[in-house]
Amino acid sequence: MASGTNRMQEESIDSPEDGPRNISSRSDVSHDISIDFKKLDLMIRSMEVQERKHSDVPQVTCVSQQSKGANINFSEGTPNCHDWQQERGGSLNSCESRKPERSEAPSGDFMTENHHVTERPFSEERQFQQPELSLTNTLKLLQENINSFVGNELEAVKKLLDPESVEERREKVEVVEDEKILKSNREAFQKIVMNFLKTMKQENLAYCLERKTSSVSQAKLKRSLKKRSQNVLEGIAEARKTTPLNSIFTEVYMTTAGSGEVSDQHEVRQIQVPFSKAERAEMAIACENFFTEAPGREEPARTVLTKGVAGIGKTFLVQKFTLDWAEDKANQDIHFTFPFKFRELNVLKEKKYSLVELIDDFFSETKEAGLCRFEDSRVVFIFDGLDECAFSLDFHNAEILTDVTAPTSVDVLLTNLIRGKLLPSAHLWITTRPAAASQIPPECVDVVTEVRGFTDSQKEDYFRRRFRDERQFSRIMSHIETSPSLHTMCHIPVFCWITATVLQHVLNRPEGGELPKTPTEMYIHFLVFQTNVKREKYDGESKADPLCSPDSRKLIESLGKLAFEQLQKGNFNFSESDLKEYGIDTKAAECSGVFTLIYNEDRGLYQDRLFCFVHLSVQEFLAALHVHMTFTNSSVNLLEKQPTASHESQPEEDPSAETRLYRRAVDVALQSPNGHLDLFLRFLLGLSLPDNRRHLKGLLVEEESSSRTSQATIQYIKQKMNENPSPEKCINLFHCLNELNDRSLEQDIQWYLRSGRFSTSRPSPAHWSALVFILLSSGKDLDVFDLKKYSASEEAFLRLLPVVKASSKALLGGCNLSERSCEALSSLLSSPSCCLRGLDLGNNDLRDSGVQLLSVGLQSPHCKLETLRLSGCLMTDAGCASLTSALTSNPSHLKELDLSYNHLGGEAVERLSALQEDPRSGLVTLGLYPTGPKWMIPGLKKHACKITLDPNTAHKHLYMYDNDTKIITTNASRSCPDHPDRYNSWPQVRSGHGLTGCCYWEVEWEGEAHIAVTYRPQSDTDNSCFGMNKHSWSLSCFANVYYAWHDKHEVIINPPPTSSSSNRVGAYLNWHAGTLSFYSVSADPPVHLHTFRDRFTDSVYPGFGFWNGPGAIVSLCEL
């Protein structure tokens, strides 16, 4: 390089007569970079002019030339300028005067800020003072250094591009003399080389150089992220007890069934759908597959938004994703992963950063390597905790930013990054609690996922990792399953940690002890345990009652006050200054085990540390404890903001003040539109029990709680449940009753279900809420939910809507539903958390107006119905048009559609047939017939059929009359010929014609009678009493009760509570659906009594039977 430079200098002697000129050097090799050495060149030439006036020694100058068409040969060592000039066929003499040309790209000035030389105007008339010789030597030395730097860097480039020299280069780049200066120079030079290579049509070499350069910084970044992510802190942060992430990480269940819509419900409400249903109804996804190609997407997703309640495992997923990438276990097609936390970005909201500067500040590895362009790399930005973002993301009014090096505020930077204006090639993963998800516009999100927490199997896996002893593990799992509240909350990983911490402590105590059964008991034990750990490990004390310590009491009181007052304001993160306002020492708070530092301190970005409770539920528990302590110790009801009474004027044993506290708490929680005080209320009521108070000895003034207070509170809660609040609020009130150890509603429901009397017992709203709670908690009947098992009415449907939403298939046929139910179903089908895949609405008088309302939900992209039955719903072409339009908008999921027994015209049939043939449609089975005006009769009578009795089957003690439409039992045996079909053992008779399809008939009875359906007998066994074998199904009718019989199995049915009794019964057979339903026709509409479900394999025959004794009558009714 040096020899080449000397030759260039010898041929470029500037004549003193020409005088200095303004000379610009422009590189047109790239539109990205334009190089201007004008300032340096002018200074050197001007000094040379002056020096030649005083010396005969010829002076030289180096003028940068255009490099158009340059060809660099790396195989022959360092390129020299003479070779380049010879190939161009021009002279290196730079004495020619030419005007500077404007560059089409921004000018790049490579003189650093600390070495800037100010350019001065120059003219021939101006006289220069003799500069000092040292300045001339300095500039010449600078020129030599630049030449040396270029030579060294070209040699380094050669080694980078030589596969055999890659590892050697990786070691060398880590040794730098002056990181700041050399980094800047190297970055600029690499850009120059890559742009020259591209102009020389050496794109492969340019790409290879770029990849080799970035791979060095990638390796450094991976090492750094592995160090950050490989361990986690468990328990008290101050102890710095780290655990390898891979050793404790348990997969959580995440689905793509969510949406970007806002959810303002309390987070515990959002996890109450049974996971057994979620696993079948929703499509699971793993975070390592976020940015890979997937069915239905032409290319990998750019932006993924992940929702999940607090403590559900979002941050652990981010940490695991980062660690797997850093350890080369997953996503190796991604070049760089940059995980950020919003709580860390919050402290930068007043500062200005470019995207490159932001990355450099958080990840020094990229700064050291000089990376500032990521357009040609696969980059993933992770932003964890959108709900903690302290600055506004304005997607409508924010300025547009496209330059990764342009500084701006952090909110504008993130807004443009999410919108895809800034670095559109990047991938983004944003995590948030559900309530904050709507901050990101749906059009900016490609995939929405939802972390649902632990499934039952994952929950077992977690506890098995924590409890290696099989006996302890079995006892703990059995204990959790017996408590609906614990079972539900243990879907949240952080609650599993709290539960495991407490149960492990209780089981390992020498004296043993009863395991906590409710969340309140669990959190009391957790507080006592963590306080005890703090006193033993950090305070050096080991008293039996840690809460009796003045320091512990003061800390808990201060934390409780902070929790309650900030819960009212909706604040969940706290600064050191916030803690000082409440007199809380930060170290003591961290050692408490219920409070934690929420960011790493090792990046040096923060002026004030941030803290939070280990989980929102812990803050709610301490808030409830503060309210209870304040009332118990000072008789102040914080929920009313005024003292209830003084100790002098009202004795503590008077329960009225305490009752008013709990009633007020119930009212406040019910008034919350989103249920954010649900857990607070549960904890407060749980703290009212004496058994729970005894664990808090030292915090509460000793008092005797009256049982009248608990009973009064229980009655008040039941009263509120009967005032018809929303199903979600009723479920929480049911949890409150469990906290008060009241199981009366649950026992009532269990009795109703066992006796089969629920549908005829006129349950109260409180009982309906209890039923919802039981069904959702147990997962019972959620594969196929049959509304008729509980009550075939619209009231029952609306009460049990949360259960319908959680079911895979809902059987709602013949349940007297109307437009009101269709509107509710439409909303349900539009919900992303709806699990329904099959829906039977047959034989409900929905009419066109109801179908039109239902169609709104069917066209929603969240609707995943695969089977829909609208048979016999009084639908015409108008309703069919709405239905067809909806299915055209959302055609891919529905596979089976039954529209038989309606009145559809030819045009409607053609549209539906065309829909079935549409390649986008998944519709396989389409039922349209029978159809016509005769099916527009309301109710089941549209399916009326004429029953004709067969005399050859009648028992000899049965007498038929009135054209064989009536049967009466007699003592006398009538004379009748032998016949193989005759019933000889029991007084029974059946029709002569078998039935298939949909048929309805009615009968009236007197005395005692069996109304049945049977196969044609094939043996003597089949001739037994109706309902006592596998081939017949019977309703036994008595004066005050009904019995449903099949294969000797009995179900007791109470008669419907009607003002006037009726002995008229209707029977409806849907042969293809395998159902036989019986109704009491004492009212309009008929009241459902019982439905048999089976699979019919042959024609069935209506039959009638009697108990022994004369006078019982059955009459066939004409419809």
From TrEMBL:
Residue ranges occupied by any NACHT domain in the UniProt entry: 302-436
Localization of this protein: Cytoplasm
Renumbered residue ranges of the record's region Disordered: 1-32, 71-113
Gene3D superfamilies, A to Z: 2.60.120.920, P-loop containing nucleotide triphosphate hydrolases (3.40.50.300), Ribonuclease Inhibitor (3.80.10.10)
Domain of life, per lineage: Eukaryota
Major location (coarse): cytoplasm
Keywords, ordered alphabetically: ATP-binding, Cytoplasm, Leucine-rich repeat, Nucleotide-binding, Repeat
GO cellular component terms attached to this protein's record: cytoplasm
InterPro entries for the chain: B30.2/SPRY, B30.2/SPRY_sf, Butyrophylin_SPRY, ConA-like_dom_sf, Leu-rich_rpt, LRR_dom_sf, NACHT-assoc, NACHT_NTPase
UniProt-listed Pfam families: FISNA, LRR_6, NACHT, NLRC4_HD2, PRY, SPRY, WHD_NOD2
Molecular function per GO: ATP binding
Domain B30.2/SPRY: residue ranges: 927-1119
Listed PANTHER family: NACHT, LRR AND CARD DOMAINS-CONTAINING
Protein name: NACHT domain-containing protein
Annotated source species: Salarias fasciatus
Lineage: Eukaryota, Metazoa, Chordata, Craniata, Vertebrata
